[in-house]
Design brief:
mainly alpha, three-stranded antiparallel sheet
């Protein structure tokens, strides 16, 4: 007879814990978004410092830009340091969901723009519907 109450207790525990196992808690998502903001801010700052020191933004694909920021520039100056684990095999900085950040430049304002695809791993684009449905992160609006 003691087996039934114990089995019932395990069942109740499993039912209560299941929603937490199926989706990340809200605070975990908030932490992840904070990581994205911090990375984007650091990368944006490094790109601005690169511009101040070199008189131009680095050119090329994201992996090439990251090499420039990590000391592979004509001055040999390191503008951005990060653990190897957050770079993919092409040298691109990846967001917490594993998608490479996109780096663009607003030349009218001379500022770098850093884009993350967000948790759904898809860049939604700039259409009004895309912006409304987007979970993307941009460091500058």
């Amino acid at each position: 007879m003691k087996i039934i109450p114990a089995a019932f207790g395990v069942l109740v525990f499993a039912i209560l814990m299941l929603p937490g196992l199926l989706k990340p808690p809200a605070d975990a998502l908030a932490t992840t978004k904070a990581e994205v903001k911090a990375l984007a801010h650091s990368l944006g700052t490094a790109l601005s410092e690169y511009y101040e020191a070199c008189g131009e933004f680095p050119e090329g694909e994201e992996g090439r830009i990251m090499k420039e920021l990590q000391g592979g520039n004509r001055k040999g100056t390191v503008f951005f340091e990060c653990p190897r684990e957050i770079l993919n095999d092409r040298g691109e900085l990846i967001d917490p969901w594993g998608t490479p950040f996109r780096i663009t430049f607003d030349y009218s304002r001379m500022i770098p723009r850093i884009h993350s695809a967000g948790p759904n791993l898809t860049f939604e684009g700039s259409s009004p519907m895309g912006k409304m449905m987007s979970d993307d992160f941009h460091n500058v609006n």
